[in-house]
């Protein structure tokens, strides 16, 4: 029995393969190197969805723009109490307003939802009016525009690279949650809501905000080692490091580091902060090697997610929502794949509680 299901194969998938020893990620036969920085998010979404819907639209790309416009109307449900919630909770609540279903229209609304709702909620929180989607734009460029952030090709390319990089990643916790719900035939909205809930935790998609908190707290490169040692002494985990599957560097970290490069060269990203981050990364890896000698703890995707999304102007409390904007295509494709097996996911637990007699005596 494996607590945490570490080595358990719970599904067969044609969607993605995570090679934790070689540090390789493949999505539907295409390597991450081949996709990140080369394909746009819509193309990768279409790749992941291919064959999973009976009546697929003629162009997934065009249909996604229309879906952004369609879900925009749900923002009118965003009352002040909802807007005051953490962006991930508010975004999830609005996503729950989408009618459940299993068809391509529901899938497209769900891909549009984290993008449209997060951008709109951030504006509403600032007392500004949400910016309606422009269906003629690419998904990444429109997200930046709706969020009121710089949306030139340089930034749109960087966000596209991010969304593609995180679009799918094997049976991670949120994708597994999506498949479990899909296996009960509950519908795609239910699957995606479960996945968003799993994603928000700090051990999964909630890590990049705390990565920036760590950079802020350390402040100077020469403070790094003492700060990191003290964090480990307290029993804290260093955010942005370690992974359940990778025993080498997470290949997504390098894809995102490359995406950050043009923003730094162009002066759109803070070079001093990037230099500090690099020094902290090196100090953290060194400290983890010494403190956890039996374990290979390397940089994961969240470290460079934090730097990239910060450079694009996203607020740190929306980072997990931006992760959802990318991963949602994977959640949906996995939900469809799971449903197609017709098999309910229902593992067993081993009872370690008191025997009947003992419980009655208490
Ligand atoms: N900092 C300090 N110690 C760590 C870290 C870390 N980031 N990661 C793992 N460890 C330690 C554990 O405490 C444990 O130590 P112990 O045996 O002395 O108790 C040991 O390393 C074992 O680690 P694993 O079994 O590899 O860890 P696990 O698979 O349970 O956890 C996880 C993986 C949750 C990602 C972990 O590395 C972690 O908490 N990282 C920080 C949070 C983070 O960056 N999450 C994002 C992951 S990427 C993603 O979800 C998109």
TrEMBL record:
Stretches assigned to coiled coil: none
Q: PANTHER family this protein is in?
A: CITRATE SYNTHASE, CITRATE SYNTHASE 2-RELATED
The scientific name of the source species is: Pigmentiphaga daeguensis
Per the record, the similarity remark reads: Belongs to the citrate synthase family.
- Cross-referenced SUPFAM superfamilies, in alphabetical order? Citrate synthase
What Pfam families does the annotation carry?
Answer: Citrate_synt
Catalytic activity field: oxaloacetate + acetyl-CoA + H2O = citrate + CoA + H(+)
Q: Give the top-rank taxon of the lineage listed in the UniProt record for this protein.
A: Bacteria
Tell me yes or no: is Plastid among this UniProt entry's keywords.
no
**Pathway, per Swiss-Prot/TrEMBL?**
Carbohydrate metabolism; tricarboxylic acid cycle; isocitrate from oxaloacetate: step 1/2
Q: Does the keyword Lipoprotein apply?
A: no
Entries under Gene3D superfamilies matching the protein: Citrate Synthase, domain 1, Cytochrome P450-Terp, domain 2
PROSITE patterns with a match to the protein in the record: CITRATE_SYNTHASE
Q: Could you tell me what this protein is called?
A: Citrate synthase
Going by the UniProt record, its keywords in alphabetical order are: Transferase
């Amino acid at each position: 029995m494996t607590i945490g299901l570490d080595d358990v194969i719970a599904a067969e998938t044609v969607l993605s393969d995570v090679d934790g020893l070689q540090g390789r990620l493949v999505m539907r036969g295409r390597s991450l190197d081949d996709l990140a920085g080369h394909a746009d998010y819509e193309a990768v979404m279409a790749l992941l969805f291919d064959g999973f819907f009976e009546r697929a639209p003629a162009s997934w790309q065009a249909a996604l723009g229309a879906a952004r416009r369609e879900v925009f109307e749900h923002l009118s449900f965003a009352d002040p109490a909802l807007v005051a919630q953490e962006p991930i909770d508010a975004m999830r609540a609005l996503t729950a307003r989408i009618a459940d279903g299993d068809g391509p229209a529901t899938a497209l609304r769900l891909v549009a939802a984290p993008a449209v709702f997060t951008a709109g909620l951030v504006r509403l929180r600032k007392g500004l009016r949400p910016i309606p989607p422009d269906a003629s734009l690419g998904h990444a460029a429109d997200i930046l525009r709706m969020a009121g952030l710089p949306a030139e090709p340089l930034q749109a390319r960087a966000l596209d690279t991010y969304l593609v990089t995180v679009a799918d990643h094997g049976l991670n916790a949120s994708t597994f949650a999506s498949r479990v719900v899909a296996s009960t035939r509950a519908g795609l909205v239910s699957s995606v809501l479960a996945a968003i809930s799993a994603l928000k935790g700090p051990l999964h998609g909630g890590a990049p905000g705390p990565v920036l908190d760590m950079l802020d707290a350390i402040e100077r490169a020469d403070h790094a080692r003492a700060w990191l040692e003290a964090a480990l002494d307290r029993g804290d985990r260093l955010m942005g490091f370690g992974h359940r599957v990778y025993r080498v560097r997470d290949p997504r970290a390098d894809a995102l580091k490359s995406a950050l490069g043009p923003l730094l060269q162009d002066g759109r990203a803070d070079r001093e902060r990037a230099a500090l981050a690099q020094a902290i990364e090196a100090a953290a890896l060194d400290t983890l090697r010494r403190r956890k000698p039996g374990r290979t703890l390397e940089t994961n995707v969240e470290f460079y997610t934090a730097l990239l999304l910060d450079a694009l102007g996203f607020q740190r409390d929306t980072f997990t929502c931006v992760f959802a904007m990318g991963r949602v295509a994977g959640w949906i494709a996995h939900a469809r794949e799971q449903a197609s097996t017709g098999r309910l996911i229902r593992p067993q637990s081993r009872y370690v509680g008191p025997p009947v007699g003992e419980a009655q005596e208490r």
